[in-house]
Fold this sequence. Notes:
The complex is a heterodimer of chains A (784) and B (241). Chain A has 784 residues and is of the alpha+beta class. Helix content of chain A is 53%, strand content 20%. Among the domains of chain A are: 55-246, no CATH class; 459-643, no CATH class. The mean pLDDT of chain A is 86. Chain B is globular. Chain B has helices at 54-61, 84-94, 110-118, 127-133, 149-161, 179-196, and strands at residues 10-23, 26-39, 43-47, 69-74, 77-78, 95-98, 167-171, 199-204, 215-220, 223-229.
Amino acid sequence: xxxxxxxxxxxxxxxxxxxxxxxxxxxxxxxxxxxxxxxxxxxxxxxxxxxxxxxxxxxxxxxxxxxxxxxxxxxxxxxxxxxxxxxxxxxxxxxxxxxxxxxxxxxxxxxxxxxxxxxxxxxxxxxxxxxxxxxxxxxxxxxxxxxxxxxxxxxxxxxxxxxxxxxxxxxxxxxxxxxxxxxxxxxxxxxxxxxxxxxxxxxxxxxxxxxxxxxxxxxxxxxxxxxxxxxxxxxxxxxxxxxxxxxxxxxxxxxxxxxxxxxxxxxxxxxxxxxxxxxxxxxxxxxxxxxxxxxxxxxxxxxxxxxxxxxxxxxxxxxxxxxxxxxxxxxxxxxxxxxxxxxxxxxxxxxxxxxxxxxxxxxxxxxxxxxxxxxxxxxxxxxxxxxxxxxxxxxxxxxxxxxxxxxxxxxxxxxxxxxxxxxxxxxxxxxxxxxxxxxxxxxxxxxxxxxxxxxxxxxxxxxxxxxxxxxxxxxxxxxxxxxxxxxxxxxxxxxxxxxxxxxxxxxxxxxxxxxxxxxxxxxxxxxxxxxxxxxxxxxxxxxxxxxxxxxxxxxxxxxxxxxxxxxxxxxxxxxxxxxxxxxxxxxxxxxxxxxxxxxxxxxxxxxxxxxxxxxxxxxxxxxxxxxxxxxxxxxxxxxxxxxxxxxxxxxxxxxxxxxxxxxxxxxxxxxxxxxxxxxxxxxxxxxxxxxxxxxxxxxxxxxxxxxxxxxxxxxxxxxxxxxxxxxxxxxxxxxxxxxxxxxxxxxxxxxxxxxxxxxxxxxxxxxxxxxxxxxxxxxxxxxx
Amino acid sequence: xxxxxxxxxxxxxxxxxxxxxxxxxxxxxxxxxxxxxxxxxxxxxxxxxxxxxxxxxxxxxxxxxxxxxxxxxxxxxxxxxxxxxxxxxxxxxxxxxxxxxxxxxxxxxxxxxxxxxxxxxxxxxxxxxxxxxxxxxxxxxxxxxxxxxxxxxxxxxxxxxxxxxxxxxxxxxxxxxxxxxxxxxxxxxxxxxxxxxxxxxxxxxxxxxxxxxxxxxxxxxxxxxxxxxxxxxxxxxxxxx
Lengths: 784, 241
């Protein structure tokens, strides 16, 4: 090994603290890059593979009842590759030991063959056998939540009739990667699942012998989905169909796509920011490190080392720091990716999902690290090689300081003047340090604001808009006087009816398939609220739309839209938008209940109620509801809220911990590097002060005061940057399904400031020990 | 310059050498027209108060700095016309430097500091041999922080001679040392001059050292004020101050 390389290794070891601090920051950037892109790749690959293998349909069409003889006609439509009919219904489940009601979607499987579309992957056990109408396959997440095994019994109410079923298998389907009750926005595996049963058994249960009520198809290459959907609607219209939709509106697919889109945003917004911060820290450290070594550089050049050799030496030094970061980052990225993929595995039920970053991602990550290092090092090294050797070997001349305004200096003691003059003497250096601290604060603000957003969503949705205890849906429309029956159930304190209908809302070229809910205008339980969370009156006439729907349609209050029912007699009507309600999730439309009934022309009917319960009497209420044939499902608000919080805690916990840790690391890295280098530069000055009689405390004050002042100045700007960053994240995460409210509570700023203050204070304590240990005689002897 | 021909081989040759430093509004004329000839195997002492231009001349001769005007040659090479790369090669192949404050790399041992130069020189001696020449074989694995000032300077001498340079340029080599230690260092420089035949230039403001040189050039105010030829050199070991 050459002497120069030995010097390299010893320097790295000597500044190991700084090397590690920089390595960790670079590592964080790389880790999040590998994690985000790797997870994105893995999810997309697993999705595409499973959609392909499981023959996931591309168009879905629910209907009332069509004879099986219609299927060949549907399959013969131009543009159809494969078509399949099914029977789909709802079931209520009575699970021993679970007080509340669980709901399931029941889907038929063909007898004696595999389905042409939407294949069910049997994970354990087997599929239902022909001639055994009680056999059922249960979706995996639901089975796990209840510990179901093949062979277990299952009590269900299907179409109002109690059935005893036998679980024979545990399964998965590309159609239900994300198993979620259409009425809620987050999965609750204890209360909602999928059951697959034999076609004959379900035909019997739903009186659909020789008929089907659900149709799906895949498209031939080059087929226009819009045309195929139109034709499907036309053929199915006489049979209560007409609401064909594509994958975009398929719940599981839409939620998975939303997640993938968010990951794309994450992988394009966050890693570049982290790598940028790493490059910045590297640049600051490298320039000052090289500045300290100016005499050694002069000597190397005096001995005959050329500029190239000197540049290569310092580039290698920086490269080594980056390499340490890259190794830490790749390892950390893998670890994080595995952890995140594990969380995804719980929400998205793929038969196979493993964290598999593509080699290209790793190469890209390493490339980013290399660019980071080279960009930072080149400027620093150019400065080093630019010095003529004779000048480089001279000790740097005393720095020229400028007098501060007398009004200012008059207020300060001598140490205070030293602090202030030093800060102003190197405005760029001070500015960069300040920027580093501000970025650290901003990082924490932009991470933790997610919690504020979620609390706002909960506050609006669960406490201001939905004040009921539960939502009870009926198997079909019921006369509106059923409300009185429900009101007399034990534990029912307040009951309000609603009717929801599948509709298509059209405004000009924009058209959205959604649900229209008829609410009682004087209702107290289910309310619509404005952005200030004030309740909005439901007008006698006119349409209320949620903010996401208004945005999707591009309409404002006073404009006319067409509402077309996708069920019943499929009536269509032009209505005026009477108001826009604030909702962060989903695109929904509302009207007064009488208005919806007028549109549908089926009399005074409802298909569900909102109910405020008496918690003391819940078991009795459940007991009654389980036995009521009209009840299709019960959605509990408390369960929904719990599921929401749990989902959020699980999916965000790891990431946010990482981001906050990264913020602390940036603050520490900036403070430590700038302090250690400052100490090497100024050890002589500080020792001189000690010789002159300044106490350790005073000397520490002079040295660390600079950093403290910069940090204090960085706090407000960091908070502001954090707000802007949070705004960018909220804007980036906005998708078809939901939007994130931009809310940053004072406590979040408080946490950000506390995190950064703690990191910098810790660094100050470490550096102070070094100041206390300054060897006065030795420092004064050496010629720095 | 045939008129200046000498029976000895001329190593350095300068005519009208001028160096002006401009820092902000301050103009410093460090050299005001220096004419000089230095010969093979000669040991020359540059004597004079600080600020008289000695170090500036040494830096120009060593290829560390460039003159503002005038002529400077090393053998047949014109130092004033060399580019950065050529000056680097010149230093690497021909020049050994010794500085007042040793300028050792603190993170390298004595032997490694010498190796730093022998690694890149065309015909170096082994670092261990160079250290033996200055009597530091025992201390070769020590870091600069573990060596006394005199020992550090002897490492610097070993580092300078390890490449078998044609010229050895020493800027106040004993400036930071006491008399006894300084003599040891001077003896090492003298040995290199005598045994390797290296043309040696030593800057000092200590007149007591002057006696060890073949010639003494007295500097004043950026000019050579006086040239004294010493008929008989005194061995360094006999010096004291």
